[in-house]
Design brief:
This protein is mainly α. The chain has helices at residues 2-8, 11-51, 59-83, 87-117, 136-161, 166-181, 189-208, 217-237, 244-259, 269-294, 302-318, 323-343, 349-367, 370-397, 399-419, 421-437.
Amino acid sequence: MYTNDFESNTPASSAWRQSEQAAPSLTCQIIRYLRWAGTVLIILSAVGFMLQSHADLLPAYRYWAGLGFTLALCAGGLVCTYLLRETTGARIFFTLGAAFLPVQVSQVSAMIYAFIHGGSALQPDYSWLQFSGVNPPLIAVDFVITVFLLISVGYTGFSMLARRQVKILMHAFLMGNLLLLLPVRDAFWVPFLIALLFIRLRTLEQTLQQEKAMHLFEGVSARALTSLPLLILIGRSLLHPSSVLLTAVIAAITATFFLVDIKRYTRSPLVIYAAQWFGTLAALGAWIVVAEDYAGIDHGYYGLMLPLSGLLFLLSTQADYHQKAYRFFGSALALILTYGALLNDQAFAPLSALSTGMALSLAGLRYREKTPFFAGQLCFLGGILFYCSYAIDAYSHAPWLSSIGLGLVVLLSASYLEKRQQLIISKVDHYWQELKSWD
């Protein structure tokens, strides 16, 4: 017993144990690098096939080539499962196979769209993305094969990645591919499809974020699979004529992701700071596009300029940096636009001044900031002064009646002040001290 303890503590045995522990660790790192390298090679090969413009391949052959690629990935997963008895490789193969299924769906959708619309179909400028001259039986066969693979391979991939959430993940995956399959390419309905799918995926993401298992690499991969149809739908829409609605929707999605959703994926201050400004530019770009299309911002249309102030206040609620700067510029812009509309006799300018003043005043009270509060008071005062012009006109028509009314108001005010002067003084002092403590 003594000899064994002594031998176990010798330098030679200690070094042997360290080398024995280091060997599996080094092997695991090599295996991990090999898997990453193989995954990247497969993805680059698939993307290269889609982008290298095979003009000599007919649309049907391009679909079957992509189908063969997907089936090869599934075959690799079956080999890992039943021959090698290895689950990690099988998970990678089936995940990649499920990831390329939306591409197959998009190709079938292009065939159906080209067949329905014929010569009037909107085709991309790239010939290798055009699907024309495909007969109905071939479309039907491709459709059945794609739906079968979408259900079988998709379910297998999600079962391996997140078994507990496979039902909700499959529902979102099938919904995205169904919208991707619709033979719609016009610039009116596509933005609605994109917005609908984004809202559904965002709701799903908020639900899955609450489960710890979905923060693992497998859970993140499963969540990424559900987003692929949306990304393809957006990318495909960029190949066709754009519209104001499409631009506004994509800009709004970009702003929402970089201003709100990015905080769920990273805590890096640098990333959040850069994403905040990128999202702000996207939101402002959406407003500029809409304003220019409907009226033109260079023609002094205050009704379209004023919502920009509200947009800045809305952005300040989601920004992590410089919130006061957002509200400062929003308040200054609202004040300038309100008095500009009043001086130019814009329609509904007085009512807009009163409502803007109340909104800014409430914002000042909410955030305890002087700039929006005093800007709101000035806007409200401008609306009141405008309506005072009606009182001046009434006085010019019946000065004696107006004087009597004014005298009554003055006497009643004096009586009220005498009765509640201490309360009024205390309220004014409290109000002043409160303002001094604000930013």
